[in-house]
Amino acid sequence: MNKARRNEIQKIIDPLSNIINDLRDIMDAEQDAYDSYSEFFRNSERGEEMENALDAIEEAIDDLENAQERLEDV
Q: Distance (Å, rounded) from C-alpha 65 to C-alpha 37?
């Protein structure tokens, strides 16, 4: 791969890092909110929805980090 195409890939990697960091911030805020609720709430349907959302965000972060690593290997 030539330098120009590597530079184009780097232009994708940098914003991807920002997105990952933003998602981590959102996940941390949601986790703090979830942790502040009572066990009764956490066991409710709404609590389960929050937990599922946290799991989905974490999975998305993992997927984006894997994509970032693959791009960096190029």
A: 30
Supply the angle between the helices 3-36 and 45-73 in degrees, to the nearest 10. 160
User: Residue 36 above 90 pLDDT?
Assistant: yes
Q: Any idea of the CA torsion for 38, 42, 44, 47, to the nearest 10 degrees?
A: 130
Closest CA to 60 of 15, 24, 13, 25: 24
Q: How confident is the model at residue 1 (pLDDT cuts 50, 70, 90)?
A: confident
CA distances from residue 9 to 1, 13, 23, 25, 34 in whole angstroms, order as listed: 11, 6, 21, 25, 37
Burial of 72 (0-12, 13-18, 19+ CB in 10 A): exposed
